[in-house]
């Protein structure tokens, strides 16, 4: 625990600590995580090499209260450079700790890095996973559950207990084999199945228990690589309460769609007869449909789950889009603060910039790449954030970016959008491909104001929800459709906007937003952390 005492010394001064993104008056949570390879046995799959954290697959659940400081040392025992990213954690004023290649040098093998961050004003369910290469195909992911402080009221009665379900598609193939396949210009194969907390159809091992008559909170994160999933529980309904840090108008569903990178929280009341029931997850919009089960066990039950599984929703996109429109913010619930990111009355703010981002796939020099407005992102060897800080020229310029779809052919570039701190942006994700997309923005939640089919036009603005749209960090875009979001850019930094479909991100479907003002002030952005790793031209 030597590093803990060194850090505590360093944290001794409040003045110092607020420079580097930690608040001395809020509690600290210290974690030391060793990242290793080991053989895992994911259910009905043959044993394979997994990525473990302190010997665990999936990784440990982080449970913290909102505003806690998290100090996490990652020891990289893999044979590759490694970064962990904290999906949905806003990293206010602190893109230094985001753990993506545009802000951090990867942690070299056999060395470590200590992340220092605060989970500020965000109560909800989030996840972490490796950002580098295709590591997350083999594990390294886990849940981040952010609880309220006792002074904050929840907009629902305290549940009798809670369960966290990390659900995602899974490959029998090692991450390096899949990565090589992508590097060689081929696409990603269909996954081999789905896992719930690392297991498939192991109903006897994946059992979530509760007492008849009581209500339990279920936290679900889609940690998968490419497929949207649908979750449902035999003979039970789910009352949605929270989506990525927003408390929603509580509605009851038979099943819920969760797209890659998304997370949500719902309540389940155990109002059936005392027995066991199936929890089912199945892929959405795929043929064939992959599915897996776990068990909801009533205390005292001696009857295992039987009977037909609750049926999957209709294959069509329509029902899923309709469900997405029912996710609305509860304007009177203050648990996550009414104004966590951006403005409360977002519908009254004038848009200062519109970006229409179209995704596409194309071969460049015979190799499959994915792009945004026909530019496929290439990671520079010097992280963008370090290039900015040290004024290193030639890493990026702000004119590679394109505000709207642009005729091809697709080119490669380091795409950074130059945006002003406090800009109010409208981003339209235009998907003219036949597969569902999922986009994630670091550093922010944005208001998801509209979903529609075919081509977005400015006329579609009249259909936006300008009152109570849910605010979240990951949005789906249905096939041949668009999704519109609005966001107040009040978090200075270099922020990754990426496809949450991991091979698409890896092969170029990502950009960075540089949210900037020329004034250097610790009130808008923390200073570079003293332990920042240096690489590329920043190492010289
Ligand atoms: C992290 O690396 C430094 C040297 O770079 C070493 O002194 C320290 O002990 C390491 N910490 C852990 C927890 O392994
Ligand atoms: C898991 O269970 C689902 C639902 O019963 C079934 O469709 C699937 O084939 C099972 N998978 C395996 C690998 O047994
Ligand atoms: C909205 O939040 C309030 C708490 O402020 C809660 O009492 C109410 O039930 C919630 N409404 C819905 C529809 O979820
Ligand atoms: C928004 O724009 C309208 C017209 O373009 C202008 O009249 C109004 O003052 C603006 N509102 C704000 C808050 O800037
Ligand atoms: C990019 O923009 C800068 C100003 O920001 C300008 O000096 C430069 O010529 C532009 N480069 C290209 C290739 O257009
Ligand atoms: C990319 O280029 C192709 C070919 O010119 C064009 O049809 C397509 O609309 C472009 N897509 C985007 C998203 O810019």
Task: Summarize the structure in short.
This protein has 540 residues and is mainly β. It has helices at residues 2-11, 14-19, 175-183, 317-325, 384-389, 502-506; strands spanning 28-40, 48-53, 62-65, 69-76, 84-87, 111-118, 124-130, 142-147, 161-170, 193-196, 207-210, 215-222, 229-233, 238-243, 246-253, 255-258, 263-269, 276-283, 291-298, 353-364, 367-372, 375-377, 411-413, 416-420, 424-431, 437-441, 446-453, 471-472, 474-477, 481-488, 493-499, 510-516.
How would you characterize the overall build of this protein?
The structure is a single chain. The protein contains 6 helices and 32 strands. The strands form 7 sheets. The protein has a 6-stranded mixed beta sheet, with no helix packed on it. It has a 6-stranded mixed beta sheet with strand order 21-20-25-30-27-28. By secondary structure, it is mainly beta. The chain has 3 domains: 28-147, Immunoglobulin-like; 161-325, Immunoglobulin-like, CATH 2.60.40.420; 341-539, Immunoglobulin-like (Sandwich), CATH 2.60.40. The longest helix has 10 residues, at 2-11. The radius of gyration is 22 Å and the shape is globular. It binds 2-acetamido-2-deoxy-beta-D-glucopyranose (6 copies). Residues 3, 32, 73, 75, 111-112 line the site of one 2-acetamido-2-deoxy-beta-D-glucopyranose.
């Amino acid at each position: 625990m030597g590093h803990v005492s060194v850090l505590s010394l360093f944290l001794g001064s409040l003045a110092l600590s607020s420079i580097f993104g930690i608040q001395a008056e809020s509690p600290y949570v210290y974690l030391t995580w060793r990242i290793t390879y080991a053989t895992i046995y994911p259910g009905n799959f043959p044993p394979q090499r997994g990525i473990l954290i302190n010997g665990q697959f999936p990784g440990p659940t982080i449970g913290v209260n909102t505003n806690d400081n998290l100090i996490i040392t990652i020891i990289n025992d893999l044979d590759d450079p490694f970064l962990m990213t904290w999906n949905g954690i806003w990293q206010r004023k602190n893109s230094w700790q985001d753990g993506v290649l545009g802000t951090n040098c990867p942690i070299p093998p056999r060395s470590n890095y200590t992340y220092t961050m605060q989970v500020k004003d965000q109560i909800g369910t989030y996840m972490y996973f490796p950002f580098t290469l295709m590591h997350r195909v083999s594990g390294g992911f886990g849940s981040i559950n952010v609880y309220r402080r006792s002074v904050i009221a929840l907009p629902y009665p305290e549940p009798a207990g809670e369960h966290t379900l990390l659900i995602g598609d899974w490959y029998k193939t090692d991450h390096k084999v899949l990565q090589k396949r992508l590097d060689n210009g081929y696409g990603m194969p269909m996954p081999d199945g789905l896992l719930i907390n690392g297991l498939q159809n192991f109903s006897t091992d994946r059992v979530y228990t509760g007492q008849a008559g009581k209500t339990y909170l279920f936290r679900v994160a889609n940690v998968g690589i490419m497929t949207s999933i649908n979750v449902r529980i035999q003979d039970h309904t789910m009352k949605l309460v929270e989506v990525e840090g927003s408390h929603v108008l509580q509605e009851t569903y038979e099943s819920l769609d969760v797209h890659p990178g998304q997370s949500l929280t719902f309540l389940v009341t155990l109002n059936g007869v005392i027995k066991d029931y199936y929890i089912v997850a199945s892929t959405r919009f795929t043929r064939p449909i992959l599915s897996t089960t776990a068990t909801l066990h009533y205390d005292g039950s001696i009857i295992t789950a039987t009977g037909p599984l609750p049926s999957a929703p209709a294959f069509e996109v329509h029902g899923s889009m309709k469900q997405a429109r029912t996710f609305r913010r509860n304007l009177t619930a203050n648990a996550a603060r009414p104004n966590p990111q951006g403005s409360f009355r977002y519908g009254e703010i004038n848009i200062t910039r519109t970006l229409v981002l179209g995704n596409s796939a194309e071969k460049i020099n015979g190799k499959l790449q994915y792009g945004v407005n026909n530019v496929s992102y290439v990671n520079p060897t010097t992280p963008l954030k370090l290039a900015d800080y040290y004024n290193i020229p030639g890493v990026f310029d702000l004119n590679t970016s394109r505000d709207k779809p642009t005729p091809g052919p697709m080119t490669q570039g380091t795409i950074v959008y130059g945006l002003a701190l406090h800009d109010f942006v409208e981003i339209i994700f235009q998907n003219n491909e036949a597969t569902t997309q999922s986009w994630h923005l670091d550093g922010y939640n944005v208001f998801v104001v509209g979903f529609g089919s075919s081509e977005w036009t400015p006329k579609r603005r009249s259909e936006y929800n300008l009152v109570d749209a849910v605010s979240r960090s990951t949005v789906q875009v249905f096939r041949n459709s668009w999704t519109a979001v609005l966001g107040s850019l009040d978090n200075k930094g270099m922020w990754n906007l990426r496809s949450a479909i991991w091979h698409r991100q890896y092969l170029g479907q990502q950009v960075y937003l540089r949210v900037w003002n020329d004034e250097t002030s610790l009130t808008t952005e923390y200073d570079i952390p003293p332990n920042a790793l240096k690489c590329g031209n920043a190492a010289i």
